[in-house]
Design goal:
The structure holds two protein chains of two kinds. Chain A is 51% helix and 5% strand. Chain A contains four helices and two strands, in the order ααββαα. Chain B has ten helices and nine strands. In chain B, the strands form four sheets. Chain B has a three-stranded mixed beta sheet. Chain B has a two-stranded antiparallel ribbon with strand order 2-3. Chain B has a two-stranded antiparallel sheet with strand order 4-5. The chains are: A mainly alpha, B alpha+beta. At the A-B interface, helix 1, helix 2 and strand 1 of A face strand 8 of B.
Amino acid sequence: MTAAALLIVVLAGVYAFRHQESQAEKVAAPAPSAAVDSSACIASKEFMKANHMRVLDEWRHSSVRDGNRVHVAPDGRKIDKSLNSCLNCHSNNRMFCFNCHMYANVKPNCWNCHISPMEAP
Amino acid sequence: MNEDRRSFIKKAGIGLLAGIGSAAGLFPALSLEKTVFPAWDEKPEPGKRRWGMLIDTRKCSGSCRECVAACHFTHNVPDFGNRKDEVKWIWKSGYEKVFPTASSQFQSPEVTERPYLALCNHCAEPPCTKACPTEATFRRWDGIVSMDYHRCIGCRFCMAACPYGSRSFNWRDPREGIRLASTEYPTRMQGVVEKCNFCSERLVKGQEPACVEVCPEAALVFGDLNDPASEIRKLLEANETMQRKPELGTKPSVFYII
């Protein structure tokens, strides 16, 4: 009796996951990428203040052109090269980008296409 | 003394600056602070994979537009409600428009009157990338003909070069034409060309393209054309298939079962 019940449970499990496996086979393993880890900034505040635009430019080029989506931070953490890696944390403050850019009278055109922290839901 | 103290200090200062400048040229490490620390070993191997799609038009019913709606929502494709400003990534069109060079003489009316799904063919020999003066559009390592919207200057050479009409120009600010915006994908801006990207943003996460995922009839099959064991290759071997305008030599990656 217990063996039969156990068999039913196992079969049900196999049946439930069968569909997922066939789905996974259709598309080959995803391109090398890292989790969007926004727990801590990739570099010091001072460095990012001075160089964020160059980091983003490098990220854009290497991820879009070469498919290298993994950024390795100086402390060894692997981060997805995406604006979302930054905004997951920094969009908490809606004025994060704008305060500084307005003060410095810098008008980057990121937000013509990307969704800015100000517009984020 | 001919030279006063002030002009001596000025000249010494200029000399010092020139010295620092030449030192920066000699030792590049001095010139700029290092910004990134990339891990190049995770770069994919170019040409190893070639994404492709097979559309079984027998299963694709005429009135269904699920894939079009899903794609255009996922990628924030605007809809202005008129043909002049139309932006499209995937759409349905008649037999003569999709296969203008295929034989339509004495074809069964069921075949010639059915609408066919059209999208960017992600050609192995894409004419659009050769026409682009800024390399804003290019063929990726995995066969996807991709666009870097940051680089597009809106010259529309690629639109003239594409024999399939797969590219659209943003005559207006696309944000005006988006009723329901997806926060998962950016929009474009006025003055750039856009087209299907084979859902490269979803492939990174290991997901199938949005159109393939939502198709209620499972008429779309996506896979690696370079892998002989993939489902798409097996279906290509088992069925007679067509490409759009194969005589142009663009080698499309989108195949059709008629």
